[in-house]
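Please supply some protein, with fold tokens.
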Amino acid sequence: MRLSTVILPVRRWSEGGKEVWRRAEELGFHAAYTYDHLSWRSFRDQAWFGALPTLTAAAAATSRIRLGTLVTSPNFRHPVTLAKELISLDDISDGRVTLGIGAGGNGFDATALGQEPWSPRERADRFAEFTALLDRLLTEDVVSSEGTHYSADEVRNIPGCVQRPRLPFAVAATGPRGLKLAARYGQAWVTTGDPKVSNAGGTPAESWQAVRRQTEGLAKACADQGRDFDELQKIMLTGFTPDRPLDSLDAFVDFAGRHAELGIEELVIHWPIADSVFAADPAVFERIATEGLAQLDA
């Protein structure tokens, strides 16, 4: 199992932002991700910086750790412009970028450009078209495509990604259509658990069963696509289930062990932010980062 972290873009680069990304590398995390939103939930009226410029700065400040988004969505992105930025970021980082990609939700991003929120069906339709076109833009030198929602006209993306044939996609999905996209285009699959369980006051055991059902759905989608289920990495972004894995080292080891049984191969924990939903003891967090996986193996 791998352990990664997600660093929300809430700090000025000159006031601790750079140091957090460097510290993530020093602690030995496999990857450091950030959210790709214009603003997010309880942080809406606080500092919040752009994901791709932040990751570009992080690429310059680090040398080994992988970097990425968890996740980018079509809410305010277009595949053509996103592809150009990703190719540039992949080059600057010397091939250390993973694109977490999802359908998005009905939060602030959904209406920030003045549009009405998309229906679930339209959101799924856009996600499928967005992902397919982005895949082409990142693998082909010249792309023309006319879609229902996204088009490209003689778009050049030379020299392409450092990572070949393109940088990896980590597709966030739980429903059948999204899991099909993960099986077709993803090098990894991302889950945050089942929000219905958490919203209904469910237990950790119920959450575990929900993730098990998701992995079964992914296995079916892989079979339908002729894809080897085992070659698709399984990532879990923690912090959205009834579990509390950052309460202590023992709590983390228990959580990690139970989810390893489901085939989860990478856990992502939130870098602590005081006075927020992601508040945690920094000392416990660093102990988990440096000792957690070793205790799991033991």
Observations:
- The chain has a mean pLDDT of 97.
- The two ends are 13 Å apart (CA to CA).
- The CA atoms of residues 10 and 48 lie 5 Å apart.
- The longest strand covers residues 66-72.
